[in-house]
Amino acid sequence: MFDLDDHYVALQGTARELAESVAAHAHEADGMLEVHPGMAAALKASRLTELTVPAAYGGRDPHVDSLAITVVREQLMRVSAHLDGLFGMQGIGSFAVSVAGTDAVREEWLPKVATLDAIAALALTEPAVGSDLRSITTTLVARGGSLVLDGHKSFITNAGAADFYSVLCREGDGYSMAFVPADLSGVSVTVGPRLIAPHIMGEVVFSGVEIPEHFRIGAPGGAFKLMLATLATFRVSVAGAAVGLAQGALEEAVRHACDREQFGKKLAELGPIPHMIGTSWVELEASRMLTYRAAALAAQDPLGNLDFASMAKVSATETAGRVVDRCVQIMGRFGLVEGSTIERLYRNARPMRIYEGGNEVLTGQLAKRLAKRLGS
């Protein structure tokens, strides 16, 4: 059993109130490739984005708290993927800066992240590079006292809306990260592609972008340590979002099954429907418990507990896929209606098994570490 203390319960309540306040805009916002102004205004007013940066730069906690991020994302994703993405990416896009950015960059930009006055983005993948990030071709070269960035990033969340990008690049024989304001000369964005679960995304091209030396994030060649720290802190929050999505889908299906009558009985009492509902609830609660435990462990020691974060991400996203699929089945033809809540949740569930580490990649990594631990 894992019980949240009063602090986290209060955060859940704030996040739930925020999500419910914008629920009427969820369908519209979840189909947009730009920031929904109403969603952004409500998120800003909630001050929840203060959780995404350290207290020294306008945040709430001394360090970013994985459990706090996770319980908030659970409530936001239950209602809107757009709202969840706006919140989550503030932390994911800025975390390397929080950990290893120069004082000048942190002092100028992180307070804006905390108040949602600057939108963050993390630029890793490229047109020909997904999970194999060591194959990237974007380059960072020291030239005349400055750094020059060239490359093409693709499938970048918040592209076009972001005020800055934390960019993974190749520097000589190693890999580095650079802080790149979006309005610099040489930065161009093409919005898209449009996915089955649309969200703010685009292609970002850096053509001879010149940045000062103090825009380097961390030491030269230290990029993968920074990325690992980001994953260790935020991967488990994807599990929280998946739990929230599954909860939203199950609530929608149960309401339908309790309201609809067939053969003189409530649908919830007929045939396999009770079994489908009960099984979904069992799986959902099991994933929620693993997610909370993994998030609490990540809050204590992110890198030391990355395996648990990966387990939670795999478990919760796979569960969300199964639960929402059953919910569509429970609702029958009503679950197939374009523009319905359950249809939107069904589409939003599928990408979660791919981003922040494809599930098969994560289970492969877990298998290797388990074999090593057992001495095989």
Keywords:
four-stranded antiparallel sheet, alpha+beta, 50% helix, Butyryl-CoA Dehydrogenase, subunit A, domain 2, Butyryl-CoA Dehydrogenase, subunit A, domain 3, 376 residues, Butyryl-Coa Dehydrogenase, subunit A, domain 1, globular
Share of helix, binned: 40-55%
For the biggest sheet, the summary is: 4 strands, mixed
Radius of gyration: 21 Å
User: What is the quaternary state of this protein?
Assistant: single chain
Q: Strand tally, please?
A: 10
Number of helices: 11
User: Overall mean pLDDT score?
Assistant: 95
Strand order of the largest sheet: 1-4-5-8
* CATH fold node name of the largest domain: Butyryl-CoA Dehydrogenase, subunit A, domain 3
Low-confidence stretches: none
List the helices and strands and how they pair.
Elements: H1 6-21, H2 26-29, H3 37-46, H4 66-77, H5 81-100, H6 103-114, E1 120-123, E2 139-143, E3 146-157, E4 164-171, E5 174-181, E6 187-191, E7 201-212, E8 216-217, H7 223-259, E9 261-262, E10 265-266, H8 273-300, H9 306-331, H10 341-349, H11 359-373
Parallel strand pairs: 1-4
Antiparallel strand pairs: 2-3, 3-7, 4-5, 5-8, 6-7, 9-10
Helix pairs in contact: 1-4, 4-5, 4-7, 4-8, 5-6, 5-7, 7-8, 7-9, 7-10, 8-9, 9-10, 9-11
